[in-house]
Structure formats: structure tokens, C-alpha cells
Design a protein that fits this description.
The protein has two helices and 20 strands. It has about 375 residues and is an alpha+beta fold.
């Protein structure tokens, strides 16, 4: 019995208890760290993959929306209701001193950013500030007048003129100092809107200075006086007769700008619509991440009845804008977030390869994703053979 107790005491003695050696502990720590590193690597990889997929998805959405939106607007360039079948420049302008940029008879206007022609190297710059167009940097042709606008340098500008929506029937026209037009069917006219009156043979640009509903909106009485800006020349002789139609005029400029004109904000597609003083309205951001906009105009140089494009040229080489029957639009889309790639991404845009090789454009100074979207749009009101 004493021997058994002695054996038990010896077995329970701290001098006989086992444990981890230093080597075993180090091995366990290394294995734990390796496992943790593997888990972290998987997590980081999944996170980066998710960021990459989200960025590409947003770029796809932004690029497709920008191209689709511009295509829908450009297709309607020059549409002026039934007047689209006659010479746009024959419209009688009764406005009293509109700004020089009020040129709706042109239908479509473009301005080429200097030094950005097809195949010409023109690297984008990070955090570039917008530039006032009044300082130069853009060239056009055919007498186009460009309003002062803050635009990202080296990006093209386009302006589209067209009638908005469906026309309304003109019930009566009373000329003179208190000129009025009573129409039915178009109830969204507001004070200051620029209108086109046409009987498909004669037409007038006018401004609705005082709009009043008649009979709960069934008819509109638009007083065409000198009581708004620019107002109407009340001594002018109106050509349009009762029985014609009335449509609202839209004139929208599209360009690349930056929110609040802050250089560090991402570039975006902007628009400025026709204001109620016949100039440009406030800047509106449409799609973010649009880094560049380049436009070529398809012209029917020989003016044949087939209405086919003979060449695509930049805005400064168009000459006669009535012969533009299609537009080729290219937009360069960038990811909003930087550091999406391990190294700067090479890309091809507007006929130039930007990869840093000899004769090519330099690689981007950032590590953003980039993608190019291109579309050719036919102007519906000019490409119909006769």
C-alpha cells in the first residue's frame, strides 16, 4: 500500500509533468500565422475582385447610358415638326435681339477641341481644371457661335436643336403689340419658352411671355409681347397662319465638365439646355466617369439624293452643317476609384494607342480602369433619300 501511494505521488510530481517544447511552440506559431495569412490573402483577393467587378459594371453602365442618351438626342437633331421638310434657315425670327448663339436653324453644331483630331496624341491629365471656352481651345466652322462654358480641355462639344414633343394646333393668331397665339393640345408651355410656329410652308421663332390656360388647359393663350427677355419685336410681321402647329424649341449643349468645376472631382458628361432668355441654362451633370468625348461628323459632300456619307470629318472641317447626316461618337470611360490595377492600363482611343511605346501616347499617370464606347448615329431628318 505504501508503495502504491509512493508511485502515485511520483506520477503527480511537477517534475514529471510534460508540455510543449520551444521548437513545438514555434512550429505551432508558424502554422497559425501561415493559416491566418492564407485566410487574409483569400479575403483581400475576394475584396479586390469584388471592387474590380463593381467598377467594371459601373463603367459598363455609365458608358452605355452616355452613348444611348447622346444617340437619342442626336437622332432628333434638326427636327422641327412639319417644317423639317423645308429649308431650316428660312424661318422668320421675331425675337427681339436674341444672343448670337441662338442658331436653331442649324439643327446641329459642333466644336472640335484643338489638337485632338483622329490619330493625334492627346493624353488626359489627372485633376485637370476646366477651361472657359471663351478663352479659345475649340474651333468650329460655318459661323457657329459658342457660349461661354467651363469644359474639360481636349474634349469635343456638340449642340443639338430640335422641337420638343408633339406639336399643337394653332387655333388663332392675333399680331400687333399684344400678339397672341391660341392653341390646343400642348399644355406644358411656360412663361419665357421659345416656340416655333409653322404651317409647314412658313414659320416663326417667337417667345411666349405670358401663358394662360383657357378652359382648364384645353387651350393656351400665349401673349407674344416685348415683356420678357429677349422678348418679341412687336413690329415684325408673322408668317404663320391659323391652322398651323406650335412646338417648343430645345437647344442642348453636351460636353465634358466637372462637378462645381472642382479639378479633383471626376470628369462627367454634362448638358446645358436652352434657357428662357434664349441663351444657355444651368449646367446639369448626366453621367460621371466620362473622361473624354470625341466626335466626327458624316457629311454628304456631293449632296446627292441617296443621302450617303462621303466622309467623316471633325467639326472645324464640316463647312456646311446642313449636309451632316450622321455623327460618330466616342466616349472614354474611367473608373471613379483609382488604384484598381497593379500598373497603369494601356488603351486605344480616337485612333491612338496609349501605352508609352515610341510614337504612341504615354501611359496614364493613374491606375484606373478605362473602356471606350463608340456609336454612329444617323440624323433621322436628314438621311432620308428624296
Amino acid at each position: 500500500m505504501r508503495a502504491e501511494r509512493l508511485n502515485i505521488n511520483i506520477a503527480m510530481s511537477p517534475f514529471k509533468m510534460g508540455g510543449l517544447s520551444m521548437i513545438e511552440l514555434l512550429i505551432a506559431m508558424v502554422m497559425g500565422l501561415t493559416l491566418t495569412a492564407g485566410v487574409m490573402q483569400v479575403y483581400v483577393g475576394n475584396t479586390q475582385t469584388e471592387r474590380d467587378q463593381e467598377a467594371r459594371s459601373r463603367m459598363q453602365e455609365n458608358g452605355r447610358f452616355a452613348i444611348t442618351y447622346l444617340a437619342n438626342e442626336l437622332r432628333m437633331a434638326g427636327y422641327l415638326g412639319c417644317l423639317s421638310t423645308i429649308d431650316e434657315n428660312s424661318i422668320n425670327n421675331t425675337l427681339d435681339g436674341p444672343p448670337p448663339s441662338f442658331q436653331p436653324g442649324v439643327g446641329i453644331q459642333g466644336w472640335e477641341a484643338n489638337g485632338t483630331g483622329l490619330g493625334v496624341v492627346s493624353n488626359s491629365a489627372n485633376n485637370v481644371a476646366t477651361t472657359d471656352t471663351s478663352g479659345g481651345g475649340w474651333t468650329s466652322s460655318g459661323g457657329n457661335v459658342l457660349d461661354s462654358t467651363n469644359v474639360v480641355p481636349a474634349t469635343d462639344i456638340v449642340r443639338v436643336w430640335n422641337a420638343a414633343g408633339t406639336g399643337a394646333t394653332i387655333n388663332s393668331i392675333s399680331p400687333g403689340a399684344g400678339m397672341t397665339v391660341v392653341n390646343s393640345g400642348l399644355t406644358d408651355i411656360e412663361d419665357g419658352d421659345i416656340l416655333l410656329l409653322s404651317d409647314c410652308q412658313r414659320a416663326d421663332w417667337v417667345q411666349a411671355c405670358n401663358v394662360q390656360d383657357i378652359g382648364g388647359g384645353a387651350s393656351i393663350n400665349s401673349v407674344l409681347s416685348a415683356g420678357c427677355v429677349p422678348g418679341n419685336d412687336v413690329t415684325a410681321v408673322m408668317r404663320t397662319q391659323a391652322g398651323g402647329e406650335l412646338v417648343k424649341l430645345e437647344g442642348t449643349m453636351y460636353y465634358i465638365g466637372k462637378r462645381a468645376d472642382v479639378a479633383t472631382n471626376p470628369p462627367a458628361l454634362f448638358r446645358r439646355q436652352l434657357s428662357q432668355n434664349a441663351g444657355l441654362g444651368n449646367a446639369e451633370e448626366l453621367v460621371e466617369g466620362i473622361e473624354n468625348l470625341q466626335i466626327l461628323y458624316g457629311i454628304n459632300a456631293d449632296n446627292d439624293n441617296k443621302k450617303t456619307v462621303d466622309s467623316y470629318v471633325t467639326a472645324n472641317l464640316v463647312g456646311d452643317w446642313s449636309r451632316v447626316i450622321s455623327v460618330r461618337v466616342s466616349v472614354l470611360v474611367q473608373s471613379i476609384e483609382d488604384n484598381m490595377l497593379p500598373a497603369p492600363q494601356a488603351y486605344t482611343f480616337n485612333g491612338v494607342r496609349y501605352d508609352g511605346a515610341a510614337g504612341n501616347g504615354a501611359l496614364p499617370a493613374d491606375r484606373r480602369l478605362r473602356r471606350v464606347f463608340t456609336s454612329t448615329i444617323t440624323l433621322r431628318n436628314r438621311a432620308v433619300g428624296s
